[in-house]
Structure formats: structure tokens, C-alpha cells
Amino acid sequence: MGFDSTQGGKDRAGVDSTQLPYVSELLNSVRAYNFECIFDLPNGVEDNNYLRIAAKQVTVPGHNIEEIAVNRFNDTLYYPGKVKKEDLKIVFDDTYEKGISVTLFEWFKTIYDPITGIAAANATTGGGRTPQFKARSLKIISLDGAGAPIYETLYYGVWPKSWKGAEFNYTTNEFHTIEVTFAYDFMDHVQA
Length: 192
Known about the structure:
Order of helices and strands: EEEEEEHEEEE
Number of domains: 1
Mean pLDDT: 78
Structural class: mainly beta
């Protein structure tokens, strides 16, 4: 639906002039603050392998295609080359209720345990299955003003590359956060 000049008082002929004009909301922008994250975690990290969590900030990665320059006589032509993925960075509020920092750190320890010094203990695929340190999927769902899903960005084969807590500081008036950087195998972006 686009602009219709006859709706809601735009057409003066036969319309009450006190009526407010019709303003379409279909062209409104998606709000950057309405989203949630849903993880399908690897076995042993969370009781039911399912973690639904609000995040404070998500830096959604993109894909960059490097170009290949081909020189022919006096011309240079460009073709698409190797695709390079960016990492996914999510900043979570450290909440009391779910122990988000503990859950995320338990997942991080499936890759590197700083107590034992063992790295990649669960990196084996065990016969073609998803490795035991990777989440099967992560959905970042964008919501409209009423909380209904608009679209989803889906990541598959997700695992935490880094885990970092924010500093504790008596002089600030902000919530404590956990910043986790994730790597992933594949991604998709679909209408919800």
C-alpha cells in the first residue's frame, strides 16, 4: 500500500476539514531496540538446550565479497572473488534471574577451560554430527512496536570466540554487561 491522496482528508472535495489526515505506518523504519535472541545450545550447557534472552546490543555481521581484478589490454575488469564473513558481537545485560553470565561462560568453557587449560575438548564431530561446542542455531528476531516478529536473522553452527565482562565501577550508573563474540558457519535473513 502506498500513499492515497483521497484517504483521511487529503481530498478536500466533500470531506470534513476537521478530520485528521491519514498517515500510513507501512513506511516506518524498523526500530533498532526491538529484538531478542534465541539459542539452540549444545548439549550440556543449559538444561533444555534452549536459551531465550534479550540483548542490549547486537552488531549484526555482514558479508564482504573481495573483488578479483582481471587486466586485459588497457582495461581492468572486476569479478566477485572470495567471500569474507564478519564476526557476530552481542552485548547482554547481566541479569540476576537466569544467570546469563554463568550460562554463557559454561558454553565458552566447552571450547577453552581456563581452569584445566584444555582447549577444544569437544571439537570432534563424532561421525558427521554438529560438533559438541557449536549451537545448532541462533535466531535474532526483530520485533515491531506491538512485539510481533518482522524478520529473523538466522545463524547456524554458532560458537563463542570470546567472553568478556564489563568493568565494575562504583561511579557509574549503568547495568553490568557481558560481551560475547560469536563465529558461525552459515547465516540467512528471512521474513518472519
